[in-house]
Write a structure and sequence with these properties.
192 residues, 7 helices
C-alpha cells in the first residue's frame, strides 16, 4: 500500500482501463452491483474527511497528493433484486438484505478492490485502499452519490513517491499451519 504519491496526473484512459479490469471481478449471481466513483479533484474528498486540525497532524501527508481517488460503491438492494429473479428465487435471498447470512455485496466489492490494486501495480502505479468509516454519509452527500450506495472504501491511485511502510507492515505473517485447516486432517500436510 503506497501512502506517498507524486502529484503527477495520470495518462488519459488509464483509470478507465484499470476500472474495466476491476469490474470483471467475480460477482455473486453475476449481479454486477459494484460501481466506482472517480474523484479527480481529491481536495473535494479530503475537505469532507479531514478537518484542518486533523490534516495538520495527519501521519501520511503524501497520501493527500494522489491525483485520483476511487470510491468503491456497492448497492445491496441490487443483490436482493437479482436473487428474487426466477433462477435465484429458491435461495430465499431475494426477500431483503437481512436474509443474506454473508452479505456478498461486501465480498464482491473486496474482489473488485483486489482486482483494482493488482491492475494498478501492473501499471507501475502506487495504490492504497483505505476506509471511509464515519464519513460515509458525508462523503456520499458531499460528492452527490445516491443514498442507495454503500461506500466500501477508497483507493488512492497515482505514481508512487518514496514512502515508508505502514506501522503494520512489519507484523509477521502467521505460520501456514495456523491458517490452513485440512479436512480431513490426515489427507494433506502443510509442511514437509
Amino acid at each position: 500500500m503506497c501512502r506517498n504519491f507524486r502529484p503527477d496526473d495520470l495518462p488519459d484512459g488509464l483509470v478507465v482501463d484499470l476500472l474495466d479490469r476491476a469490474r470483471r471481478a467475480p460477482s455473486a449471481g453475476n449481479t454486477q452491483a459494484v460501481e466506482f466513483g472517480v474523484v479527480t479533484d481529491p481536495e473535494r474528498y479530503w475537505g469532507i474527511t479531514l478537518t484542518p486540525e486533523r490534516r495538520a497532524e495527519f501521519a501520511w501527508p503524501g497520501l493527500l497528493r494522489a491525483p485520483v481517488l476511487v470510491l468503491v460503491l456497492t448497492d445491496p438492494e441490487r443483490y436482493v433484486q437479482r436473487y428474487a429473479e426466477p433462477d435465484k428465487a429458491h435461495s430465499g435471498l431475494g426477500r431483503n438484505p437481512e436474509a443474506w447470512p454473508v452479505p456478498y455485496w461486501w465480498v464482491d466489492a473486496g474482489m473488485a478492490v483486489h482486482h483494482l490494486l493488482v491492475a494498478a501495480t501492473a501499471a507501475d502505479l502506487g495504490a492504497c485502499f483505505f476506509g471511509v468509516f464515519e464519513h460515509e454519509a458525508a462523503v456520499r452527500q458531499g460528492l452527490g452519490l445516491a443514498d442507495r450506495y454503500r461506500i466500501v472504501g477508497t483507493v488512492a491511485l497515482g505514481y508512487a513517491a518514496d514512502h515508508r511502510p505502514g506501522r503494520s507492515a512489519g507484523r509477521p505473517r502467521r505460520p501456514i499451519d495456523e491458517v490452513v485447516h485440512l479436512v480431513p486432517p490426515d489427507r494433506l500436510r502443510c509442511s514437509p
